[in-house]
Amino acid sequence: MNKHYFRILLVVGAASLIVVAYAAFVRQPDGAVVTPETPVQTPVEQPSAPTESATAVLAVKWSAPKEMTSPDLFSEAYKEMIERQRMTDFPPQDKLHRVGTVVSEPYAGAMVVIVTVTAMNMGDYTTYHALLPKSGKPVLLANHSPFIDSEPNEYGPVRFDAEKFVIDDTNVIPELIFPTTIEQNGATMRIQRLSLFGQQDPQKDAPLFDSRDRKIAFVHETLGTMYTDTEAVARPQHGFYAVAPDGTVRAYALDVPFYDEDVHVPDVTWADGLKNTEEYWATDVGGCGASNFLSVVQGVAQGDLVAVGKTSQGESVYALKNADHALLKDTYENSYAMGRGDDKMSYEDFVKAQPLFFWRDPFGRLAKFQKAAFLPAVECGKPVIYLYPEETTDVSVKLYPQGGFTVTEPAYDGGWNVRATPKGELTNLKDGKAYPYLFWEGRGGLYETPKQGFVVAQKDVHAFLVEKLSALGLNTQERADFIEFWEPRMSGSPWYFVTFMGNRTMDALAPLEISPKPDTVIRVLMDFLPLEKPIPVQGFDIQTPVRDGFTVVEWGGVIR
């Protein structure tokens, strides 16, 4: 499983959304790829591919996206939440765009629309594809619309009123279906689950491609023009972006041929003939995991580099010639040394330890690889997992943080196998020892601190945590364990920005497999930043989950 899940960037912005992607792609009949000059897109979630029964194909005549008034699809509870947010400094940017007309049965003449929901809580922004027939109820296309929720969850009240629309789980629009991988210049690129939240202007037209933030990277024989980030983008992800005929975007990341993302040990032989055995990261680290798809550096000339080895494909890898190069010093001071105090090696020893090497990718970009031992001291901090089966049960738990584990208890050893009681008591089957929970630390997938959250005075931190953790579904013991670990880490500044993420974020950062399958899973990740003074932020509602049947609870936070 850990070879096949995707990374997700979890940064929240007021104009963010979700764009669907699938495992095959069919171009428009005329072969064109539409690149509408409409403001910013934000690609994201990729629901599962259509089922075998989803064989009916809809033909669509595409048109330039045009904003229109949304039909009333939403529940009263959801509309009340929207109205509350409209009264804040960060009003929601819900949008509806007409992007085409169906020209085949059973929906001939129906408008194809994108419904962008931008006001859900805990960083959840979603885009739905719908049809508006000439008569009858609107139709939501389930195969192109993730998370059509039917009951409340941690992301807020039910969004849609089931009496106001029809769900179609059979028909698909081929032009919105993209391949899992593509090839160009001898390189393989893999489609991503991605949000580009945070680098977007909330006043722009959220769902759609904006060429002002992109430049042409290459022209693919099937997908047409592919784009990448411009230097003006605040936090470039260094992906490649394909534009669908409805104006939405799919993101692809380069597969580095000599690098296994699971083990982080590049297949490189150094100039002295020794094979590399050290872990290096090909991405920059932020928060709980990676902050981009590939660490591409600017401002380093070829003359600054010296060859130090070869990849398994025979390509050269390089190091910086000058031990005083600004990039080496910055890596030492602002990546490795930060937060380590006196517990760090000297700069001279740091340079000798080969902290960085570089590789020129097939698109001419200079990619940086940073030794894992010199990454920032940032990780998913003390996530713990509680198990509450309805009767004493032997349970298998497997976890797949992309950056691997730094600590586990009991020892992970390919998975945890425990006997769990309804009271949450755990016995490790390997050694017979008792544990209150399963504990791990490590790094997850693509991550950046969300923008939605709360500003809390230090004196109010305890009461705030009790209130929010209760709302998030933690019981008395879980709250006490959480507060015991995290409250002391929130005592050095007068104010704090605090945010929480739920199941979808944690499922992307560190996918979890449990057997037998639980009935209820509650995963909570907290991130926080110290502040000298309050700042304006957009908050969110929390819908308390119902703990029903075999319940699993996990909480953790981001350690900096």
Q: What does this 3D model show about the protein?
A:
The protein has 560 residues and is mainly beta. The chain has helices at residues 76-86, 326-336, 347-352, 461-471, 476-486, 503-509, and strands spanning 56-57, 60-67, 95-102, 111-117, 126-132, 139-141, 166-168, 171-172, 181-184, 187-191, 214-220, 224-229, 240-243, 249-254, 268-270, 280-281, 285-286, 289-290, 305-311, 316-320, 356-360, 366-371, 379-388, 393-399, 405-409, 416-420, 426-428, 434-435, 438-442, 454-457, 495-501, 512-515, 520-531, 551-559. The protein has a 7-stranded mixed beta sheet with strand order 25-29-23-34-33-31-30, with helices on both faces. A 6-stranded mixed beta sheet has the order 2-3-4-5-6-7, with no helix packed on it.
Task: Give the SSE layout.
Blueprint: E1 56-57, E2 60-67, H1 76-86, E3 95-102, E4 111-117, E5 126-132, E6 139-141, E7 166-168, E8 171-172, E9 181-184, E10 187-191, E11 214-220, E12 224-229, E13 240-243, E14 249-254, E15 268-270, E16 280-281, E17 285-286, E18 289-290, E19 305-311, E20 316-320, H2 326-336, H3 347-352, E21 356-360, E22 366-371, E23 379-388, E24 393-399, E25 405-409, E26 416-420, E27 426-428, E28 434-435, E29 438-442, E30 454-457, H4 461-471, H5 476-486, E31 495-501, H6 503-509, E32 512-515, E33 520-531, E34 551-559
Parallel strand pairs: 1-8, 6-7, 33-34
Antiparallel strand pairs: 2-3, 3-4, 4-5, 5-6, 9-10, 10-14, 11-12, 12-13, 13-14, 15-19, 16-22, 17-18, 19-20, 21-22, 23-29, 23-34, 24-26, 24-32, 25-29, 26-27, 27-28, 30-31, 31-33
